[in-house]
Amino acid sequence: MNKKYIGYCGIYCENCAVKVKVEPASKILYAEMKKAGFEEIMHLLPDGDRFWSFIEGMAVHGVCASCKEGGGNPECAVRICAKEKNIEICASCESYPCEKFAELFKGYPLLPHDNSIFREKGMEAWSKLQEERKKRGFTYADEK
Questions:
Q1: How many CB atoms lie within 10 A of CB 20?
Q2: For the chain, what is the radius of gyration of the CA atoms?
Q3: What is the rounded distance in angstroms from the CA atom of residue 54 to the CA atom of residue 42?
């Protein structure tokens, strides 16, 4: 498990639909467009240069970095609090769950369950769950 993809909130970024589905699709689209010669004509299309830069960046460099790597919303109250408290994952905080999680729980209905596994069984059990999900192509978007 790549620990840099463990969000402070307990979301494992490698199980995000962007990482699981969008990035691989962008690599295919970019390769096919490049093979077909689009790189040479994109400047002729409306916003073609912007699109080409976007798809190339997504395919070559990837879309996201976790919040621990500087990705995501810099104003995220969960991230700010975790950094202030110097904790790796909020589930280890004595105040968890707090009011900062209300919106996250709506968007990520598995998050309370996942974080309870972390609290009750530790990082190893939590990591095993996330890795099992990753192997079968799970994304958080599938659970909404």
A1: 19
A2: 18
A3: 12
User: 35 is written with which tokens?
Assistant: 């093979």
Which two structure tokens, joined as six digits, stand for 114?
């996942």
Structure tokens belonging to residue 83: 């950094």
Alpha-helix residue ranges (DSSP H) falling in the chain: 17, 23-35, 38-41, 48-61, 77-85, 102-107, 111-121, 123-135
Distances (CA, A) of 60 to 5, 17, 57: 19, 18, 5
pLDDT tens, 49-91? 999 999 999 999 887 778 888 888 889 999 999 999 999 999 9
DSSP state of 122: -
Phi, psi (deg, nearest 5) at residue 6: -90, 110
Dist CA 143 CA 69 (whole Å)? 25
Tokens of 65: 């970095």
What is the dihedral sign for C-alpha 112, 113, 117, 118?
A: negative
pTM of the model: 0.81
Domain range annotation of the chain: 3-136
